[in-house]
Design a protein that fits this description.
With 170 residues, this protein is mainly beta. 13% of the residues lie in helices and 44% in strands.
Length: 170
């Protein structure tokens, strides 16, 4: 799913950078279980997330050590651009690794859940920037409601969750 910046924002950006193209962000998630099972899906970038990116551009958010969090929840309503939080947040962990593929606009955010972490069935996930370990704090960048949910049973099953954000112009 591509999320395109609003017409008003595009007009402003065109005046600033004189570019007739659209700017978009695509987000994809991969849930990779220790037993080899893989779930892949696309997400909804939120308006709050786009606003946070704008804040970085104008240096309103200038600290490069702002925390990023993986949030899991049990909400089931479809993700929308106007989401500010997960539907019902129930688990939060600091993103394990943040990287940009060399020479590309692909950003990778990975979180590793060990066997004893995040036990349960989760129906939504999101990436939060800023905030603390407290639920519903920070800015929701994106949200996904994976078909069938994300089951994290107790036992010896680890789970790696990767969110990839691609910034692109058309």
């Amino acid at each position: 799913m591509w999320v395109v910046v609003s017409n008003a924002a595009k007009g402003l950006l065109r005046r600033v950078i004189d570019d007739p193209g659209d700017i978009g962000i695509a987000g994809e998630w991969t849930f990779r279980y220790g037993d080899g099972k893989i779930i892949e899906c696309r997400n909804q970038i939120t308006q709050d997330g786009l606003n946070a990116l704008g804040d970085y551009f104008i240096q309103a958010l200038s600290n490069s050590n702002v925390p990023f969090w993986l949030a899991l929840g049990t909400g089931t309503v479809a993700a929308t651009i106007s989401d500010h939080t997960l539907g019902i947040e129930g688990y939060r962990k600091s993103v394990s690794t943040k990287a940009r593929d060399t020479g590309t606009s692909l950003l990778r955010l990975r979180t590793f859940l060990m066997q004893t972490e995040a036990i349960g069935t989760w129906t939504e996930a999101g990436i939060i920037v800023g905030g603390t370990s407290a639920f519903d704090s920070g800015t929701l960048i994106n949200r996904v409601v994976p078909p069938g949910g994300i089951a994290k049973p107790s036992g010896n099953l680890a789970l790696t969750i990767e969110c990839r954000l691609t910034l692109a112009a058309s």
